[in-house]
Amino acid sequence: MNPENLILSEKHVSSSYVRQGAQARRGHERLVRHLLEQATVELFLNELALMDSNNFLGNCGVGEREGRVSSSLVARRHYRLIHGIGRSGDIAAVQPKAAGSSLLNKLTNSVVLDILKLSGVPSVASCFVVPMATGMSLTLCFLTLRHRRPKARYILWPRIDQKSCFKAMITAGDELRTDLEAVERQIQTLGAENVLCVHSTTSCFAPRVPDRLEELATMCGKYHIPHVVNNAYGIQSSKCMHLIQQSLDKNFMVPVGGAIIAGFDETFIQEISQMYPGRASASPSLDVLITLLTLGANGYKRLLAERKEMYSVLAEELRTLAAAHGERVLHTPHNPISLAMSLDGLRGDGDDKAVTQLGSMLFTRQVSGARVIPLGKEQTVSGHTFRGFMSHSEAYPCPYLNAASAMGITRDDVALCVRRLDKCLKALRKEGGEGGGSGGSGGSGGVEGGISPEALRCDEDHAGD
To answer: Residue 455 has what pLDDT?
Structure first.
């Protein structure tokens, strides 16, 4: 932390706090130069930690929260950045005792804002990382809106069957898209002043596709209604981003537990940060800052490009497999991440037992993330019963299987998934009396050559399953 960097730090954190941290840091002169990228990041984090009072050599703490940690392992895990972020009443506020942690928070928010602009939202004005996952982060937004619109009682929500979110859908071919006319009718029926917000979604499982954000935004502007977007894993898709709560784990490959709240009104984003009760864990901010400093802008753009390429690979392999089993990949061109394959051939006299069994077979064969959706399932969530739950519709015409090309997916992931899915489908059809004839050999034969030797050895461990 040279003098120039200390001066730059004063733009984000009070100069008196920075000077105090710099003074304490002079007691720690034993620095080692590292050339490795990850070691450089660790050196930077250790420098930040030296600016927090719990790491001052002569500090005498007599308060109720002094950053004391019993386990040295826990201290190392957090790089001795113990004080967390924010203060009571504002998650973005600077802590007098924690100039380093406060600076980490400010830098993380700044870096994430750049990534949002890089990913397709150049006009986004402000953002902050919050140590809560999707559902709680959305709740924080809704609570802030409740203060702005105290008379409003309703949230208009185009149905998306994910329990962290809470009906206005129409079928267009295989796709389920936003029914704009139904949304506008509800606004007129309820009265715009009684609508807290329109809550739309870009991150969803096919055949559901991202909501029609531009049209919804225009409608919200017409009736002066706030528009909250659940963009949980949309940062990784330019199609979603050009169109704003986002999940950290899905978009930046860090542990679950954090989200980004962003928007085009800096004052409103600040209001949301002030709604957060008390201090907050710095872990999500630390994780995403480490990740982005290690990747850099070019590294993150490379991951985005690779994910998009793997979507095409996954789609092609699923089409080949589907054709070999008399199924088809559902036509959902407006969903750039998730794909769906029909499972009509597993239904026997309206019985979806084999469909459900397929999901269990895939899970026991270590195919994670594949979702098998039978017809007619009912689920009650907070007193509301959803018919056709998980299919985003009361009466979707066929059962299906989901697979997604999300950030970090590899060719081995695709090849092994298709290989194991092919084996499961053949086994189920054989049990159903078809003798496996419809399975053919095209399902796995076309991908085996693309699997790495390490992945093949892993697959052989499940050959008898």
So the answer is: 46
